Amino acid sequence: MFWTGMESIRRFIDWAGPAVYAVMFALAGWIVCRAGF
Question: Transmembrane segments in this chain: where (predicted)?
Fold first, then answer.
């Protein structure tokens, strides 16, 4: 179960790496703005 999930996550990152990083940075920026920094 765990390894299957890790493998699918790795495959997804290999396929959409830049998009995943863009979304992560966008979420991080949104959280920082919501926190008031």
Answer: 12-32
